[in-house]
Design brief:
- By secondary structure, the protein is α/β, with parallel strands linked by helices.
- The protein folds into three domains: 6-69 and 107-179 and 290-356, 3-Layer(bba) Sandwich (FAD/NAD(P)-binding domain), CATH 3.50.50.60; 185-286, D-Amino Acid Oxidase, subunit A, domain 2 (D-Amino Acid Oxidase, Chain A, domain 2); 370-433.
- The protein contains 15 helices and 17 strands.
- Strands 1, 2, 7, 8, 9, 10, 16 and 17 form an eight-stranded mixed sheet that branches. Strands 5-4-12-13-14-11-15 form a seven-stranded mixed sheet.
- Strand 13 (226-232) and strand 14 (236-244) form a beta hairpin.
- Helix 1 packs parallel to helix 3 (109-122), helix 1 (17-28) runs parallel beside helix 9 and helix 9 packs antiparallel against helix 10 (344-356).
- The longest helix has 21 residues, at 319-339.
- Bound molecules: flavin-adenine dinucleotide (FAD).
Length: 434
C-alpha cells in the first residue's frame, strides 16, 4: 500500500562509502534513487583513520585515483609493539605500491565522501543532506519507505538500503539488530596534526606523495584490546587510538587520555614535534565481527557497511567492506527488480553475494579473534614486555656471552608465565586467525 509521499525506486539512508557506492551503481542503471544524509554534506560527520583501498573502490569508481581528492599513496606499512620506553618495529615497503594503480591511499572523509557524492549526483541520484531518517514505514512486515525529520518528509520506494553506520537506527527500528553492545564496539578518537610536507617526508623517509602508516599496539592502548595509528597525509598526520568501550568503562578511562599518552610516548613524540592540532574527531567502530552480525535483509530492506557490522579490525579494513557491500546491495536490488519481487526471499541474493566474497570469508576467518583477545589480555601486556626486554638484552653489548643472555631471557620469561602456558597461548592465537 503506497503512501502519499514522494516515490522512488530506491531509498538509501546514509551517504558514507556503503550508501554512496550502492546509490551510484543504481543511478547508473537509471533507477530513481534518493540518498538521505543527516550531515550538512556527505562526509561532514564521517571519521576514518583513514586508509582507503584502491581495488574495492575502483570496482565502483574506476580510475578514481586520477581525479579524487587523495592525500598520499601508501608505500610503507609499519607495526610497532610498544612498552613504556621501547618499540619493537616491523615494516614493509614494496616498489609495486609506489606506482599506478597503487594499493591504498590516505584520505580525509570530508573531502573524499563529498567527491563520491558529486559522482552520485552526476549519475542522476538525488542527495538530500541535513535530513535525519527517523524510522522505517512498514506495511505489515514489509518496509515500504522511511519517515524523515522533515515536515511531509515521508518517502516511499520498492526497497530501502540502510547504510546509516555503526549505530544503525533503521536496522534496529525494523528489528534486524539490537543496539550495539559496549563489548561489540570500539570508541576511536583521532587528531589531525599539521606539519610541513618536507618535515613529514624527512621523518618518515618519503618523497613526493609517498605515504606511510604505523599501527601501534600494547602500551598505545594502555594494554587494552585495540590499536593506535599514525598515518601520513600531504601536510598533516592522522593520529588516533581506538579501544573497546567495555574496557574503557571497566578501567574508567577516556579515549582522549589514551591519545595524550600516545602522543607523549618517547617513540611517538619526535614524529609529532612542532605539529599543530587542526581537528579532533571521535567515532564508533562496530567490532563485534561475524558473531555480532545482524540479519542483513528483510522484505523491502537491505543493510550494508558498518550498519551490518562489516569491519575487519585486524587488517584495519572497513571502508572497503562498506563499498563492496554497497555494490552487492545494488546488484541484489537489480536482481529483485528483474523479478519484480522485493521480498526477503529474493533479496537473499545479497547474502549469497556477500558469503561468496572476501567480506564474509575474512570475517569468518577472524570470527574468534575478538573473544580470544578479550580472554588473553597478556598479548597486550606481558608478551610485548617480554619481546622488548628480549630485544634489549640481545642487543646490549656488555661482554656477557649470548648463550647466557638467552638463558637470562628464558628464566625471566619463565618467572612470569610457564612455558606450556605460553605455548598454549600462541597455539590458540594462531588457531583464532588460521
Ligand atoms: C576512527 C576510525 C578509523 C577508521 N580507519 C579506517 C581505515 O583506516 N580504513 C578503513 O578502511 N576503514 C576505517 N574505519 C572504518 C570505516 O570508517 C567504516 O567502516 C566506513 O566508514 C563504513 O562506511 P558506511 O558507509 O557503512 O558508514 P559511515 O561511513 O558511518 O556512513 C554512515 C552515514 O549515515 C549517516 N546517517 C546515520 N544515521 C542517519 C540517519 N538516521 N539519517 C540520515 N543519515 C544518517 C551518517 O551521517 C553517515 O554519513 C575507521 C573507522 C573509524 C571510526
Amino acid at each position: 500500500m503506497a503512501g502519499r509521499g514522494e516515490r522512488f525506486d530506491v531509498i538509501v539512508v546514509g551517504a558514507g562509502p556503503a550508501g554512496l557506492s550502492a546509490a551510484y551503481l543504481l543511478a547508473k542503471e537509471h533507477l530513481k534513487v534518493v540518498v538521505i544524509e543527516r550531515g550538512d554534506f556527505a562526509g561532514a560527520k564521517n571519521v576514518m583513520g583513514g586508509v582507503l583501498y584502491r581495488q574495492p573502490t575502483a570496482d565502483i569508481f574506476p580510475d578514481f585515483w586520477k581525479e579524487a581528492p587523495l592525500e598520499r599513496h601508501i608505500l610503507e606499512t609499519q607495526a610497532w609493539v610498544l612498552t613504556e620506553n621501547a618499540a619493537f618495529k616491523a615494516a614493509h615497503r614494496h616498489t609495486a605500491f609506489d606506482r599506478e594503480p597503487y594499493n591504498a591511499f590516505t584520505v580525509f572523509r570530508a573531502r573524499f565522501d563529498k567527491w563520491m557524492a558529486a559522482k552520485v549526483r552526476a549519475a542522476g541520484a538525488l542527495i538530500v543532506p541535513e535530513t535525519v531518517v527517523e524510522s522505517a514505514i512498514m506495511d505489515g512486515d514489509r518496509v515500504i519507505g522511511v519517515q524523515t525529520g522533515r515536515p511531509d518528509g515521508d518517502l516511499y520506494a520498492d526497497v530501502v538500503i540502510a547504510a546509516d553506520g555503526a549505530n544503525s537506527l533503521l536496522a534496529q527500528n525494523v528489528g534486524l539488530r539490537k543496539e550495539i553492545r559496549p563489548d561489540e564496539a570500539a570508541l576511536a578518537v583521532k587528531e589531525v596534526i599539521a606539519l610541513p610536507r618536507e618535515v613529514i617526508n624527512d621523518r618518515f623517509n618519503l618523497t613526493g606523495d609517498q605515504g606511510a602508516t604505523i599501527e601501534l599496539y600494547a602500551d598505545s592502548t594502555a594494554g587494552m584490546m585495540g590499536t593506535a595509528w599514525i598515518y601520513t597525509n600531504r601536510d598533516s598526520l592522522s593520529v588516533g587510538v581506538g579501544v573497546m568501550i567495555s574496557d574503557l568503562v571497566e578501567r574508567g578511562l577516556q579515549p582522549n587520555d589514551l591519545l595524550e599518552h600516545l602522543k607523549a610516548h618517547p617513540m611517538v613524540a619526535p614524529l609529532l614535534e612542532g605539529g599543530e592540532t587542526r581537528e579532533y574527531l571521535a567515532h564508533l567502530l562496530p567490532e563485534g565481527g561475524l558473531r555480532a552480525m545482524p540479519r542483513l535483509y528483510t522484505h523491502g530492506m537491505l543493510v550494508a557497511g558498518d550498519a551490518a557490522m562489516l569491519i575487519n579490525s585486524l587488517h584495519r579494513e572497513g571502508s572497503n567492506l562498506a563499498m563492496t557491500s554497497g555494490r552487492f546491495a545494488a546488484e541484489a536490488v537489480l536482481h529483485a527488480r528483474e523479478r519484480g519481487d522485493f521480498s526477503a526471499e529474493t533479496l537473499a541474493h545479497y547474502g549469497r553475494l556477500l558469503r561468496r566474497s572476501y567480506v564474509f570469508r575474512d570475517l569468518h576467518k577472524y570470527r574468534n579473534l575478538a573473544r580470544f583477545f578479550e580472554t588473553h589480555p597478556e598479548f597486550f601486556t606481558l608478551y610485548p614486555d617480554l619481546l622488548n626486554e628480549a630485544a634489549r638484552e640481545m642487543l646490549t653489548v656488555d661482554g656477557v656471552p649470548k648463550r647466557r643472555k638467552q638463558r637470562k631471557i628464558f628464566w625471566s620469561a619463565l618467572r612470569r608465565r610457564m612455558p606450556w602456558r605460553m605455548a598454549l597461548d600462541f597455539f590458540k592465537a594462531w588457531r583464532s586467525i588460521a
